[in-house]
Every structure is written in C-alpha cells, then in structure tokens.
C-alpha cells in the first residue's frame, strides 16, 4: 500500500503554512502513476495555496516494486555524507521487512528484491531509469567511473553528481546534476557498447564492485566520501 500523511510545511517563498500530503511509502506495483511521477520530476511537487509558488518536498520514503525487484529507501540529498549510518539503518529495516528477520511470506518476496539506498530526487529517479533501460545499477556505477577517466572535463564536486538520465539501444545519456537543486549542468551521450564492455570485464572491476556493494548505497560517490566502510 502507498502511504501518505498530512503534514504542515512552510512555503519557501511566502512562509505561509501549507498542509500537504507527504509520501511515506510507494507501492509502485499498485500505483504505476507514482513511478511515472518520479520519472517525470513531478512527484511531491506542491503549489503554495497563498502565493502559488511551486516547491518540492525532499524525498523520504520507501519505494517498493516487487515485479521489478526494486526496494529503495529514498532519502534527502543532504543526508548523503552520513551514508554509512543510513546504510546500516536501512539494511536493518529491509531485514525486518523482507530479509532474515521477516515472516516467511515476506521473506519469500524479499529473495527477489534488491535493497538500495538513494539520496536526493535525481538518484531515486536514476534507479528507475536504469530499470527501464534493462541495465544493472552496479554496472552503471562502474561505467561512470570509466567515464570519469575518459572525459576531458569532470565537474564532480560535493553536491554535483553524474546521473544516467535516459537512452536507448544505441546510446546512454548522462548529465551532471546538482543534487539538491536538481538542475542539470551539462549533459552528454555515450555509446551503449561502452556499458557492455564494462559489464563484460568482471575480473577487472571485481575490487570496485566489492566496494560499491558493501552496503545498499550503490553509488560511485561512496568511493570518494570519507574513509568509507572498513573492509
Ligand atoms: Zn507561498
């Protein structure tokens, strides 16, 4: 079941209190419209009833789509520096809901779910884009690292991230996106063959893969933040 709860927030423009429906969980098997809204950047967009200013709530919900094997804890972008703690907390939530601590029926469902943690709207959207293109999210992160080596200009910085935004059989589209403001700064396309190349070189990427998958935050940014998780 998808869950929303009423809460009061202040309009960022005029300060008037707005009573809005904030999402707590999305069940996309039953509400494909919510998946679509995440993909077209309209989910949790609000308009102030006093001044009309549009604003978006930060993501803070669980996304479940059993048919696609997706279980995502979508967190606010500003929480990313605390990813180790969030990973531990969300691993525990997954474990109780669908893992070893869950009732048998839920555990059976959980076998086909990939638990993930994302920070910010562009990141949760990207997981759905990856799914839609039939790609593997771990391999997409490896591809990004490969791209960082090849690109003449790499605007990677805290708050700016590389996200897969779409594509097709021939090419994959990426953009450098500002995590919180969600503005795309620069976009480009790469040959999809490059993904196949990275995906085919399992031995070469084994060490990186191990680091990307040492918790449910599967994102190359974890390799650049702090000490990371102790091996
Ligand atoms: Zn307002």
Automatic annotation (TrEMBL):
Short name of any one Pfam family annotated for the protein: CpXC
InterPro entries reported in the protein's UniProt record: CpXC_dom (IPR025682)
Record-annotated CpXC domain positions: 9-144
Domain of life: Bacteria
Protein name: CpXC domain-containing protein
Organism: Seohaeicola nanhaiensis
